[in-house]
Amino acid sequence: MGGFYLESTLSSPSLIERWSGSAFRKNWWTMYEYDLFVIGTGPGGHRAAIQAAKLGKRVGVAEAGNVVGGICIGKGTIPSKTLREAALYLSGYRERNVYGASYTVKQNILMSDLLHHTDHVIQTEMDVVRHQLQRNGIDLHTAHASFVDDHTIQLETLGSHQHADITSDKIVIATGTTAARDPHIPFDGQRIFTSDDMLELEDLPKTMAIIGGGVIGVEFATIFAILGVRVTLLDARDRLLDFVDAEIIDSLIYNMRQNRVTLRLGEEVTGIETLEGEGQRQVRIKLKSGKQIAADKALYSVGRQGVTDGLNLDAAGLSADARGRIKVNENYQTCVENIYAVGDVIGFPSLASTSSEQGRLSACHAFGIEAESIPDLLPYGIYSIPEISIIGKSEEDLTEEGVAYEIGKAEYKEIARGTILGDASGMLKLIFHADTRKLLGVCIIGEGASELIHIGQAVLTMNGTIDYFIDTVFNYPTLAECYKTAAFDGVNRLG
């Protein structure tokens, strides 16, 4: 009888709810449903969640978009780099120095040709991220997240408008960014568009104007240029990518002009309008100087906006600046002790690689785990054509600091592998202390720059000298030999 009563009582829905509900869990055997909850599944959020799970914590993540992996996989890094590879292959650009300037793999390249491989890559990367989350026991909520208070998050399931509240001890905001849109510009996603609209383009134009000479603008300018599009790149600043070594940028500009890119630097855009007429569908861009630029399409790439509007930050005691960015300390901790923010939503450097590291470090700090990192030695990869990668100090930095330095250079055309690849414009530059020979920085432009940089990164991390490259044997023929050639060049400059 007693057993029957107990069974019947435990079968009561109201009592089951009390035993399994969040209120009971919060007030009895644990304080919160999750030890860590992450908003966003981009590189920063994904890494934070994985790191916490590896520490044995209960972890949940929310993804408001349709693509697990955030903007990085859905619209940003992965699609744009896939587009770049497609453009390089179909245009035959890599082989033109070998087979002639007219060489091409396919005539009359279409946007559908360029995007053919993109969906497969996106789906594959999504599956990888989803599998990693599942394998580590992380709960994935496909829902929009917003704060109720500093420990409570409301989840609105996508498509159903169902709401549920969850609680977490620690919270990481990793919502990323979206392309900034000037409200005075008539964006239509086709003639006037942002980088986030790239996958929706229906056709490849004959002419294109790109507004904004940052990393995104430069990357797309060079990609479309090798496809035969007449590109005009506009920027209000007098110099492209001013955080990159000036000699490297000079080389990039030379290559861009060789591919018929027109640079309009120091020009401020005052308005953009569409032109409709008989057989005419163009865009006209008005400049403060009085000039007007006509093009078939216009790409607007002036900055990114943090995705924070829908988070209800006020409820958690947080705020964002005018660009939607959240301020954090050196541990990626916000002004609210238990809430962290990582990735593009906190601003510069806004790279997938750095975002991932920020996610790892934030999770370690949240749970009192010491983690080592080298924040001053982060590599930068710019996937323009030609490719650029830098790490450490530039010549401009050292001149400003009053450091006695010397350089050593190696050009791809003097390296057997460079000749085989047909890259006649590539260059690697070592920057080192003139007295101690300690390596201070590496700058590379050319094929494989973002891969090649990591050799220099390892030596920089170990506080090594350029003598390492002189004493080391590199495979032959490889682009890595540039390090040895550049080191010898540097020693010769010392006299």
Topology (elements, then pairings):
Layout: H1 2-10, H2 13-20, H3 22-27, E1 34-39, H4 43-54, E2 59-62, H5 70-74, H6 77-91, H7 96-99, H8 111-115, H9 118-135, E3 139-141, E4 143-149, E5 152-157, E6 163-173, E7 177-179, E8 192-194, E9 207-211, H10 215-226, E10 230-235, H11 246-258, E11 262-265, E12 269-277, E13 280-287, E14 292-295, E15 297-300, E16 304-306, E17 339-341, H12 352-366, E18 380-382, E19 388-392, H13 395-401, E20 405-411, H14 416-421, E21 427-433, E22 439-445, H15 449-461, H16 467-471, H17 481-494
Parallel strand pairs: 1-2, 1-6, 2-3, 6-17, 8-15, 9-10, 9-15, 10-11
Antiparallel strand pairs: 4-5, 5-6, 7-16, 12-13, 13-14, 18-19, 19-22, 20-21, 21-22
Tell me what you see in this structure:
This protein has 495 residues and is α/β, with parallel strands linked by helices. The protein folds into three domains: 186 residues, FAD/NAD(P)-binding domain; 122 residues, FAD/NAD(P)-binding domain (3-Layer(bba) Sandwich); 109 residues, Enolase-like, domain 1 (2-Layer Sandwich). 34% of the residues lie in helices and 24% in strands. Strands 1, 2, 3, 4, 5, 6 and 17 form a seven-stranded mixed sheet that branches. A five-stranded parallel sheet has the order 8-15-9-10-11, covered by helices on one side.
